[in-house]
């Protein structure tokens, strides 16, 4: 009589491996989402206005106000960066100015 190579252990180990792959996928997706939220929140008004403008345009509404806000934030950031004149010679004082 021929012996069967089928076993229930192989089925249960395959199921746990599939579950492990899905768990790893969900963890990676969650980390990417957290990183994206952090980047958008940390970049300030320019990125937030641009994302809001894209969302409005995709929804079919006018995003002129968000585009103007992004331009205003970008102009202000460029002005602040030009006025700051931060380099390694004034590293400690530049850090104190940013904290204010």
Strand segment count: 0
What share of the residues does DSSP label as strand, in percent?
Answer: under 5%
Q: What is the number of independent domains?
A: 1
Which bin fits the share of residues in helices? over 70%
- Following the backbone from N to C, one meets helices and strands in this order, namely HHHH
Distance between the termini: 85 Å
Structural class computed from helices and strand pairing? mainly alpha
Largest sheet features:
none
> What is the overall shape?
flat
Which value, in Å, is the CA radius of gyration?
26 Å
Instruction: Catalogue the unreliable spans.
Output: none
Give the count of helical stretches: 4
Question: What is the residue-mean pLDDT, rounded to a whole number?
Answer: 77
Can you offer a commentary on this structure?
- The chain is mainly alpha-helical.
- The chain has one domain (15-85).
- Helix content is 80%, strand content 0%.
- It has four helices and no strands.
- It has helices at 8-42, 45-59, 64-84, 91-99.
- α2 runs antiparallel to α3.
- The protein is flat.
- The mean pLDDT is 77.
Give a short summary of the structure:
The chain is an all-alpha fold.
Features:
100 residues; mainly alpha; 4 helices; 80% helix
Fold topology:
Elements: H1 8-42, H2 45-59, H3 64-84, H4 91-99
Helix pairs in contact: 2-3
């Amino acid at each position: 009589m021929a012996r069967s190579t089928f076993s229930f252990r192989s089925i249960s180990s395959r199921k746990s491996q599939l579950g492990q792959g899905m768990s790893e996928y969900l963890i990676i997706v969650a980390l990417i989402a957290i990183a994206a939220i952090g980047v958008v929140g940390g970049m300030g008004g320019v990125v937030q206005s641009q994302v809001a403008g894209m969302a409005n345009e995709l929804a079919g509404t006018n995003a002129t106000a968000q585009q103007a806000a992004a331009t205003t934030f970008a102009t202000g950031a460029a002005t602040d960066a030009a006025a700051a004149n931060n380099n390694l010679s004034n590293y400690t004082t530049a850090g104190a100015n940013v904290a204010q």
